[in-house]
């Protein structure tokens, strides 16, 4: 391949859907069908970066690329010259007039004719991709030559990728004239990056992921525009001081905002300051009152003209706001403390009660025990209503307004505990150090233990603190029950199921335990039952939940999530999908869960099994965005594992390897048996996609208790056994451990008897086992029995792999014609899923089929004999054949005897094998 001048941008992120769409025409070109792609979008939106990343994946293509330049748009055949410099000299030598480049003053059509010969020669060697970036600036003669070529290369292996700016109106007519009459197979209109891409871009530039709040601010300000995002991220990260990304404002934005602010009339500046304090979109009257302005309309105009304020006249209740959050932060940070306090005091009298608390606290310049007491009372009301996040906020404010004392310590610790049951647990992390300085107490131990357990993943210190809280409190108190709930989690992660159930029962029978923790403890009990008594027993813990997921109340959302996970583990994937989709929908609506992103991870795994790979990728991307500072550390490995499965199966080796390696490192750091198993499954799936079955065996054997002991009913390894056990059996069979494979296969059959998701996999493994043991006819019969009853229409990887295995066995039996059909079906499944590695696994089998077919002797049959054979191959009886051909059964028998003698066979089964 000619590398050309294109190299991928190291800061390129996202564009998963666009890259998948671009892969389709590339596949068509490999098959000999010319394709043209047009990528459009505004300047800086990432057209060039997308094309570079796409072209870098075409390692079997020759690449020729050129880029239009506004300064060179009058240079005759300038763009053609760029292309010619990349054509090998031996190919250029075939065309005398282009051997040293495009001749000056040449007729563009004549140049196009010569280019046609060059491209034809190149595509005979490898598929050819022709990239023209910024074509709106290409010179006229180059456009003429290219148009001549493109109108005449439809039968060639040529992929043409063009890019143009959508806002260059002067160039659009010329571009449209160029492609007029040339069908464009794909048009991509690029928009901004999504929220996940913003966090990925920050990781590439800054070396860390942005907090979700910061990502949303920057995404809102830039619309996801990559160039503007890069500028902001580079600018902020270049500051030497420590950065609070949740509040960071790029210096250029702050300076531009301040410059525009200073030029405004005084009344307009007062209005902007009031809007910065109020936030959101307050009414114009409310803003005027806080700003201390009688009539505000004259102040509004200059602020709108400066681009700092947006007015919404169609919404009279809330018609005005500062245009961007970053501008609001810049205005707010520039105010003096006295000015802020004054405005917050005024704002408190104009807003709803909850917001009034915020303004009252912001207006205080010293401690205020009276206000602290009011906040504590308000926190109790919010906690009783189930709003633990607001309760935590009020208690935190109360602690800050109270002089440091045992009372302020208690307020701080109670705030931390409530945060554990909110949707923003990460707020408790910076409070941890302050909590360690509090006087020793049961409440301190409970707060530290819950924070260490559910945020830091520090089970050793978490258990120590929770055990102290449990032992230092009286049975029946909510603190005692909450500590028991935390210890139930520690016991589950350790694998001590009986102790976990005992702690869980204590927590569930103690009044006053916060409802979110109670629901989560119910999940812990179900998990412990599943590991002690088997998955079905664990699933029975949730038999009182409504069968319809939509009918389960929010206070049992954790239980619904666990039911969905257990259903997925026992193979009831369709029911699991319904449960988990409902859980994720409510999480996105704001319902907090202690289990964090775990439902997303299980949902992604179910979608993968069902063949919904694009949906699985999207679910994983959402989980990655939500995996912020408030996510339990225990979710890190399962997120990396489930995020890796589709990239592995699709051959995105760089992404898959990065995720698998990160999962392995995190699992070693955390050290729990289930995390080691997650990392091993991720690594095994990557090895499997690469065709490295000894590698599969190696990584699975490294998990303590998995091989040789992981097949026991119940136990920690029964979870996800529908994933790791087929991989293990496949690897055992491939490496000659047939006795062990047979034993594992028997356990897998028993486990999967209540579900259907593993039917194709078990059939494939059973057929492989039979073939390895010399029972080839049994292997064929097992597969055909499954394939006759399989009515699924959606493509699933397991089905394609069964088709492939069946084709291999048919080839071994000599039934070449049927083998080719099953290889084609496998190819269709793998193509639909974009499972490129598994398509590549078909190549050796196709080669074996071609070689075996070539060795088969040529046989000459009469037309009537061919008719009889065709009907036999469709499994018709002699009577049915006679009826269809309007002959007697004796005649059919006569023709079959002749066919058998000519082929040297004696039965219909052998006839099937032969053809």
TrEMBL record:
SMART domains: HTH_LUXR (SM00421). Residues 854-915 form the HTH luxR-type domain. It comes from the Bacteria. InterPro entries: AAA_16, P-loop_NTPase, Sig_transdc_resp-reg_C-effctor, TPR-like_helical_dom_sf, Tscrpt_reg_LuxR_C, WH-like_DNA-bd_sf. The keyword Cell inner membrane does not apply. Signal peptide: none annotated. The keyword Nucleotide-binding applies. Keywords: ATP-binding, Nucleotide-binding. This is LuxR family transcriptional regulator. It comes from Kribbella hippodromi.
